[in-house]
């Protein structure tokens, strides 16, 4: 099965659930016979998350590509993390373009790309060009905080997650199986 028309979805905001919403879309797509590629930025390889385990059980219809990048603000050595991020991003973005244009996947999820866009690590022009040049049947989902206004304008569906109350405010740490 192929989509007749792929759209662009954006999940943004400071609230929890952006990646979870995108994964839900991916699960729904696989359940209908579509092929999905989840590309994770800013989620280090050494940090095992529940989505990695779940996706691995879905077989060849749901592919995960995880880049070993850390946002400089979360790194011990911020300068080294930024240097690595800026050094590897051109190759990574080229790979993303190849995946989107390949026709191999019906849905491509770019998890945490909005963070990279809003902070200038990835150019907005690159993202807008990716949207314009993707095959018409590819659904493209972009997640992360701070989606730029131009990206929001280019999208077909935009959801902003608004944090009203969060367990972190009570000092509750991340919980395995819930936050990761």
Describe the protein in words.
The chain has a single domain, classed as Rossmann fold (3-Layer(aba) Sandwich). A 6-stranded parallel β-sheet has the order 3-2-4-5-1-6, sandwiched between helices. The chain is globular, with a radius of gyration of 16 Å. The mean pLDDT is about 90. It has about 180 residues and is α/β, with parallel strands linked by helices. The protein contains 6 helices and 6 strands.
SSE diagram, text form:
Layout: E1 8-12, H1 18-31, E2 36-40, H2 50-57, E3 62-66, H3 78-101, E4 107-111, H4 113-118, H5 124-133, E5 139-143, H6 149-154, E6 157-160
Parallel strand pairs: 1-5, 1-6, 2-3, 2-4, 4-5
Q: In a few lines, what is going on in this structure?
A:
Helices cover 38% and strands 16% of the residues.
CATH topology: Rossmann fold
| Helix percentage | 25-40%
Task: Outline the low-pLDDT stretches.
Answer: none
The order of strands across the largest sheet is 3-2-4-5-1-6
Mean pLDDT, all residues: 91
Query: What would you call the structural class?
Result: alpha/beta
Strands, total number: 6
Query: First CA to last CA: what distance?
Result: 31 Å
Number of helices, counting only DSSP H or I runs of 4 residues or more: 6
The top-level CATH class is Alpha Beta
Overall shape: globular
Encode the helix/strand succession as letters. EHEHEHEHHEHE
Largest sheet composition: 6 strands, parallel
Keywords:
16% strand; Rossmann fold; alpha/beta; 6-stranded parallel β-sheet; 180 residues; 6 strands; globular
